[in-house]
Amino acid sequence: MGMGIGIRDQMAKRAAAEIKEGMVVNLGIGIPSLVPNHLPLEINVMFHAENGIVGMGASAKQGEEDENLCNAGGYPVSLVSGGSYCDSVIAFGMIRRGIVDITILGALQVSEKGDLANWIVPGKKIPGMGGAMELAQKAQKVIVLMNHTDKAGNSKIVKECSFPLTSRACVDMIITDMAVFHVTEKGLVLSEVFQPYTLDQVRESTACSFFCK
Amino acid sequence: MKNRFNKITTVEKVLDLFHDGGTIMFGGFGGVGSPPSIIEGLLNKGVKDLTLIGNDTGFPHIGIGRLVANGRVKKVIASHIGSNPVAGQLMTEGNLEVEFSPQGTLVERIRAGGVGIPAFLTDIGMDSDFVSTNKEKVVLEGRSYLLETALSAPISIVYAKKADEYGNLIYDKSARNTNPLVAMAGDITIAEVEEIVEVGELHPDEIVTPGVFVNYIVPTEGVNWKWVWE
């Protein structure tokens, strides 16, 4: 994504700080998959996968891959003690029922009202929404991890999403390479600016207004 | 091995059930838990113009994606085709019709088909024109929902770890995924399995899919593709 490892880890670490003891958490692909590396060892968290795992563990070690134990992306993982398997209807039932406490996912655009667009770039191939709509609509807390701007330098935080929506008013928190925002009833609230950026730089790179904490 | 219910057969025999233009519902998620030997048999038999119903189109060389990549498929009903670039290319060229359903909605539609429910209500996708257009809306207790219809198929193909002669099935870890649902939603269901045992050998409490849903059991010849991480 053109970002240094350090920045990706910084974003993942900030997201990890939102995860509390006993939570059920679903992670998207990309930077969200780095989040477990930043959790304290003593915390008890169950990672949920849409294909039908509660209690997904770390990636399988080389040579220990089991094709019948994979994450939703098709890559081999492990199971933690207390983990379980279920069918995909049950896995999505957990999401719709609100049992997933946090989902951490990537985005193409997020609006100041927390609208999320993360599945179609107009004019490009349509990959399909997968489980993004269920997770965005029904997880208790939706955290977006994304670059602040796209490759052309356009802000991905916008007043209104121009890309097709995944779900309306669903995002609670945005963590970018520059800053952290919370979506509130009065609008976006900037809570943190990452080094080496300044508040002015964040303003210049953000295509909507926001409040400062 | 006894065959008291005449369900145990071979891939070769069950291939007679598949024809050009037919509809097949398949188990599996990202290729994991899709029946490799039946898919290989379908490729070799040369059936074409298929309609496929299942979670996703796998990868070009893994799972059901092999049929798509070989141009045997005219339509898929799925939640995702992103891991199979050939599927995306065929769709763009107009050579593959794709009907997308959100993943949880898709599997629930399959479950509904499998348990005799014609449709159900959900608010998933209400904010997406892509999902909600042309779907009936139902207001229940003041809230609006989409009416999502059941999916079933003349033939379902699934993958399981173990079957007994009656077709009672148990699955292997995350390879369970959509298989128990797809197994219920076929008019005819074929289970490709790693191991076949006599009735009575599976503990009744461990059976996930009761054999009433399974018509044929075929032994697998194992996975004949390289996994994406290999």
Give a description of the structure.
The complex is a heterodimer of chains A (213) and B (230). Chain A is of the alpha/beta class. Chain A has one domain (5-212): 3-Layer(aba) Sandwich (Glutaconate Coenzyme A-transferase), CATH 3.40.1080. Chain A contains 4 helices and 13 strands. Chain A has helices spanning 5-16, 88-96, 132-138, 199-204; strands spanning 24-27, 46-49, 53-59, 77-85, 102-105, 109-111, 116-117, 141-145, 157-158, 173-175, 179-184, 187-193, 211-212. A 10-stranded mixed sheet of chain A has the order 4-3-2-1-5-8-10-11-12-13. A 3-stranded mixed sheet of chain A has the order 7-6-9, with no helix packed on it. The longest helix of chain A has 12 residues, at 5-16. The model of chain A has no long low-confidence stretch (mean pLDDT 95). In chain B, the strands form 2 sheets. In chain B, strands 1, 2, 3, 4, 8, 9, 10 and 11 form an 8-stranded mixed sheet that branches. In chain B, strands 5-7-6 form a 3-stranded antiparallel sheet. With 230 residues, chain B is α/β, with parallel strands linked by helices. The longest helix of chain B has 12 residues, at 103-114. Chain B has helices at 11-14, 36-45, 65-69, 85-92, 103-114, 129-132, 179-184, and strands at residues 23-26, 50-53, 73-78, 97-100, 119-122, 137-140, 143-149, 153-164, 169-170, 186-197, 216-219. Chain B has a domain at 11-103 and 155-219: Glutaconate Coenzyme A-transferase. Helices cover 21% and strands 27% of the residues of chain B. The model of chain B has no long low-confidence stretch (mean pLDDT 97). In chain B, helix 3 (65-69) links the parallel strand 2 (50-53) and strand 3 (73-78). Chain B has 7 helices and 11 strands. Chains A and B meet through helix 2 and helix 3 of A and helix 4, helix 5, helix 6 and helix 7 of B. Chain B: It comes from Robertmurraya beringensis. Chain B: GO terms for molecular function: transferase activity. Chain B: Keywords: Transferase. Chain B: This is CoA transferase subunit A. Chain B: Belongs to the 3-oxoacid CoA-transferase subunit A family.
